[in-house]
Structures are given as C-alpha cells and as structure tokens.
TrEMBL record, chains A, B:
Residues 14-130 form the Activator of Hsp90 ATPase homologue 1/2-like C-terminal domain. Gene3D superfamilies: 3.30.530.20. It comes from the Bacteria. CDD domains: SRPBCC_CalC_Aha1-like. Belongs to the AHA1 family. This is SRPBCC domain-containing protein. InterPro entries: ASHA1/2-like_C, START-like_dom_sf. Pfam families: AHSA1.
Length: 147, 147
C-alpha cells in the first residue's frame, strides 16, 4: 500500500471555513469541481464529476474543524476502496491541512499524476478560503494534457 | 520506506530542454532556487540554498533526455540518504516527467509539506520550459507560512 501525502497552511482564523469547504456541496464545488452533487452527511455519497470522469465518495467521518474522511466507492479502478483523509488543526493565523489519499495498491503512473493534481486542488482550496475564489474543474490548473 | 511521487507533462518537442533544466546550474536555478551552485556532472555535488536552509545532492546518474538521479548528502535530517529520481519520456508534443523522492523513513508531517512543495516546483519547471520563466526561490509559490 502506498499513499499520497500533502500539507498546506491556509491563512484564516476560522478553521470552520476550511471545514465547510470540505463538508458542504457549495464548498466542495468551490475548489474541486463545479459538478459536485450528492449528500455531504456522514453515510452519504458525494458525487464529483470532471470532463474525463469522476469519483463517488462515501463520507465516513466528520469532526467539526478537525477531521473529514471519505472512502472511494466508484471511479477509476485504482481509486476504488482508497481512503481520502483530511486532518485540520489551527496554528496561529493558519489552518494546517494534512491530506492523505491512502491505500493505493501500486505506485502506478496514474498515482504520480493524481499526487500532483491533488496538490493543485489543495492550492485551489487554500485560494478559495483566503480569497473567496478557487480553481475548481473545469477552470483547474493543468499539469499535463489531457488532465 | 515511503516515497513522494509526481508527474507533469511539459509541452515541448525537445526533451533536451527539460534535461538541461535538470542538469545545468543555469537550468536548475531557473525553476528551483536562484542560489544553485556546485557541480552538475555525475559524481559532482549540487548545492541548492533557500532562505530557510538547503540541500546538497550528489549526482548519481544522467542519461540524456531520459533519466537523472540525485542522492541527498546534506540537508534536513529526514532528507539525508533519500534519492531524487527523474524519468523523462517524449509523448507527442509533451515531455512526460515522472518524479520520485524515495526512501523517506517515516511519513512525517514534513514529508507532507515537501510533497506539496515539490508539486509547485515541478509546475515551475514546466513553466520555465514552456514560457522561459519559472518560479524559483525566493519567488516560489507559498503553500503555507513560512515555507
């Protein structure tokens, strides 16, 4: 098993703003993809769609301003069954986001791609909270082509 | 052992341009840090410096337009002995860069940070080759503060 790991520091005194961006349809649509639907409650399934396809995530856990965990229940074969784990903590003027996309079976080339792409989406989340504007799909940062 | 993985596609018909950005002092200074010194030859040591510190990398391998490998010989404790591995291949109008920073002992918080920061520097490398201008330190993209 191999994992994708990331960390960003988001300048805000309100970790609730980061938590909302991870636990509401409107928030998720503001940084990951315009086309976000489904249920953001624990036990619900979030449906994220992008021009090339998408992911369905079951919400496993939500602890206000501390933790969000999803399990991938549909999407690319390599993603199914993997876990997306968000840990938040406040450090002065910053909310520190520790991100893990865990449980990849093999470090395939697609995993390299997803690691870089996650980084750009985390920067989009940071931008959304700090400035009010993220870069969700289809206005996302391109790291290759097509991506 | 855990690894940082990334992948970018750089729009160029000349993989040599990417290779040069990884194997010359001027190229490396164009995307990673202005303060790059040392020897870029196999067996030499590259010295990368940033406001908070730096890394010394022994050049282990160079295969034109295909592969570059460095070993960290000085820097933060978690980095020493780790391997930075660049694989290049041409795919149509793009040079595909597969990046690995291998051999971390533990998935510590600093590794999460370095993973995201590497992604932004790979985007800087992409920008340098595609547009002639990267975002090396101290004009780098900030993912937290200080970073």
């Amino acid at each position: 098993m191999v994992d994708i790991l990331h960390r960003v520091g988001i300048k805000t005194s309100n970790p609730e703003k980061v938590y909302e961006a991870l636990t509401t349809i409107e928030g998720l649509a503001g940084w990951w993809t315009d086309d976000t639907k489904g249920s953001a409650e624990v036990g619900g399934v979030l449906e994220f769609r992008f021009p090339p396809g998408g992911f369905d995530m079951e919400v496993l856990e939500q602890r206000p301003s501390e933790r969000v965990v999803w399990r991938v229940v549909d999407g690319p074969e390599e993603w199914i069954g993997t876990i997306v784990d968000w840990d938040l903590r406040q450090d002065g003027d910053y909310t520190i986001v520790l991100f893990k996309h865990q449980g990849w079976k093999e470090p395939v080339e697609f995993m390299h791609h997803c690691s870089t792409k996650w980084a750009t989406y985390l920067m989009s989340l940071k931008s959304l909270v700090e400035t009010g504007e993220g870069a969700p799909s289809p206005r996302d940062v391109h790291i290759a082509y097509p991506d």
